[in-house]
């Protein structure tokens, strides 16, 4: 290929030359430097596949990144390409202060800009822990370079005193038992060694597993690529195939915009409902779709929810773990069951359609994915609520809630913020009983900041000791996909912006009706107006400079995916799901 032919778009090592004002010199210099690492001209003339390496000592969920990179490289070279791995930010859920969500958009910017800045014809993105896959998909969608998402895969389950355990639904269950004095110090220490039995992502249908399934439903993860556990040979094979496929996509020009279409997002929303996926999934899907110019229509999504049962029997909605779903055929078993409700003509990274991929999958008897006739839960996992407490909406994971509490009116017990809750929730003097509704304010996108997973308010200790397992809890925050309970989340607009949640007082009556999809504060509009007149907006802490300043200025509300306003396209092109 002529090195400076203006008609031919530069490929491989010639792409995106550093700007020295002399392109010939820029290429000469680039090649001179990379030859310092021992590359030949033959290698440098090949299709380049970048590999986003998010391995980190702080991220055990990505502990298999070295093996995955080796396998991706093998796949790229088998197809005649040149693999080059590069680091980006890595975010591990429990190692991110104030919360991983605060860093998701930063990681998406890092991913997008490194894809743009460095010469690569395609990219394989290695992600896994909750916010990493959404960040990578957001960034890569904006960069629009051919890409394959490769997830690290779920951890194995462990055993505790004869019982199978896995992060992190069981982490919460055991901690709840410890708080309720049902297990002692020795046992909580003992189980801490058993909950995470290997590297990899959480072993239930938490956010990581949800995003892996969503990636496959979108067609951007290799077919069959969502479910193999991190330490299995199947996971390594998927890595090799991902590398090989990336070369093919680079050569055929299969860019994300041809895969991440309206139909693909509808398929992904359907899958989110049918797997009993994490509530975080809807925020992340909204953000990814937003990058492609699609607004998620939450009311249309709710209508979809009424006709899409939960089919996957995984914790926290059911009883199994990700490794069981893998043995049951993985997401493809779910997709086959959902087939009549899917857009089968949506394209995947293989260049074939979803329908063509499903035709190639054998069916067999298994007991993890249910049939439509015998679902785990008769409707979709997530319901969208509206009312005077949440004018722009809120959600509840109905498949993991107490059916009795889903129709409930009670007295509000209000916590102004996380610190207030931590200080008082276990106070023996706290005026609270099991029928009350716990309200936590100021944990929204701006309020905390970063919308932490603090929406899973603990049951006050005195009630936990009395055997109370669930209460209605309401906040503008999120909760972990591994958590369960009658928990209303993502109340929008958030309290820190003066949404009605900011005006709730102790003793107010609140009514939740999931059947009616409503969340109502039983206080008159006049009274709320008076309260609003006296409301003082909290001053964001540490927002004078840096990323935090950018975050406070740019972060959108949950209904826009909490993306930064300036990262979304100037104009949206459609609403998804399409209304009939
Ligand atoms: Fe990383 Fe759960 S903490 S996936």
From TrEMBL:
Keywords: Iron, Iron-sulfur, Lyase, Metal-binding. InterPro entries: Dihydro-acid_dehy_C, DiOHA_6PGluconate_deHydtase_CS, ILV_EDD_C, ILV_EDD_N, IlvD/EDD_N, Sugar_Degrad_Dehydratases. Pfam families: ILV_EDD_C, ILVD_EDD_N. Residues 367-562 form the Dihydroxy-acid/6-phosphogluconate dehydratase C-terminal domain. Residues 46-356 form the Dihydroxy-acid/6-phosphogluconate dehydratase N-terminal domain. One of its GO terms (molecular function) is iron-sulfur cluster binding. The keyword RNA-binding does not apply. The keyword Metal-binding applies. It comes from the Bacteria. Belongs to the IlvD/Edd family. This is Dihydroxyacid dehydratase.
């Amino acid at each position: 290929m002529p090195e400076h032919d203006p008609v031919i778009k530069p490929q491989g090592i010639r792409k995106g030359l550093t700007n020295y004002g002399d392109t010939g010199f820029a290429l000469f210099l680039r090649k001179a430097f990379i030859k310092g690492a021992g590359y030949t001209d033959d290698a440098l003339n090949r299709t380049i596949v970048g590999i986003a390496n998010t391995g980190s000592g702080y991220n055990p969920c990505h502990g298999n990144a070295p093996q995955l990179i080796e396998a991706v490289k093998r796949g790229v070279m088998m197809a005649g390409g040149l693999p080059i791995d590069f680091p980006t930010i890595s975010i591990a859920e429990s190692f991110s202060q104030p919360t991983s969500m605060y860093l998701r958009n930063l990681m998406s910017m890092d991913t997008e800009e490194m894809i743009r800045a460095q010469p690569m014809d395609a990219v394989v993105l290695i992600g896994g822990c909750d916010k990493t896959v959404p960040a990578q998909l957001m960034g890569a969608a904006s960069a629009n370079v051919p890409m394959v998402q490769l997830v690290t895969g779920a951890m194995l389950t462990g055993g505790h005193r004869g019982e199978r355990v896995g992060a992190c639904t069981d982490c919460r269950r055991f901690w709840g038992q410890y708080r309720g004095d049902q297990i002692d110090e020795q046992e909580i220490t003992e189980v801490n060694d058993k909950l995470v039995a290997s590297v990899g992502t959480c072993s239930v249908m938490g956010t990581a597993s949800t995003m892996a399934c969503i990636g496959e439903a979108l067609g951007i993860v290799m077919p069959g690529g969502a479910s193999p556990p991190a330490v299995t040979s199947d996971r390594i094979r998927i890595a090799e195939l991902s590398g090989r496929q990336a070369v093919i996509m680079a050569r055929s020009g299969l860019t994300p915009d041809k895969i991440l279409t309206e139909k693909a997002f509808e398929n992904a929303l359907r899958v989110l409902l049918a797997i009993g996926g994490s509530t975080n999934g809807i925020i992340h899907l909204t953000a990814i779709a937003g990058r492609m110019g699609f607004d998620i229509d939450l009311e249309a999504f709710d209508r979809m929810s009424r006709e899409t049962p939960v089919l996957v029997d995984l914790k926290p909605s059911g009883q199994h773990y990700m490794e069981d779903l893998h043995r049951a055929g993985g997401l493809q078993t779910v997709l086959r069951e959902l087939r009549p409700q899917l857009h089968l003509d949506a394209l995947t990274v293989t260049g074939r359609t979803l329908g063509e991929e499903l035709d190639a999958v054998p069916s067999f008897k298994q007991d993890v994915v249910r049939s439509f006739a015998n679902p785990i839960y008769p409707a979709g996992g997530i319901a969208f609520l509206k009312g005077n407490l949440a004018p722009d909406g809120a959600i509840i994971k109905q498949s993991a809630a107490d059916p009795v509490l889903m129709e409930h009116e009670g007295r509000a017990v209000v916590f102004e913020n996380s610190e207030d809750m931590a200080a008082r929730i276990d106070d023996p003097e706290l005026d609270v009983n099991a029928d009350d509704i716990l309200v936590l304010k100021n944990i929204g996108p701006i309020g905390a900041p970063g919308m932490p997973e603090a929406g899973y308010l603990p049951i006050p200790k005195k009630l936990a000791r009395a055997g109370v397992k669930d209460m209605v809890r309401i906040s503008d925050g999120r909760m972990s996909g591994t958590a369960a309970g009658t928990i209303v989340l993502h109340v929008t607009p958030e309290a820190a912006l003066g949404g009605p949640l900011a005006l709730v007082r102790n003793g107010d009556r609140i009514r939740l009706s999931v059947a009616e999809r409503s969340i109502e504060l039983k206080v008159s509009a006049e009274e709320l107006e008076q309260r609003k007149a006296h409301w003082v907006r909290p001053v964001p802490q540490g927002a004078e400079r840096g990323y935090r300043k950018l975050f406070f200025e740019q972060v959108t509300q949950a209904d826009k995916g909490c993306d930064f306003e300036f990262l979304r396209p100037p104009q949206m092109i459609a609403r998804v799901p399409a209304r009939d």
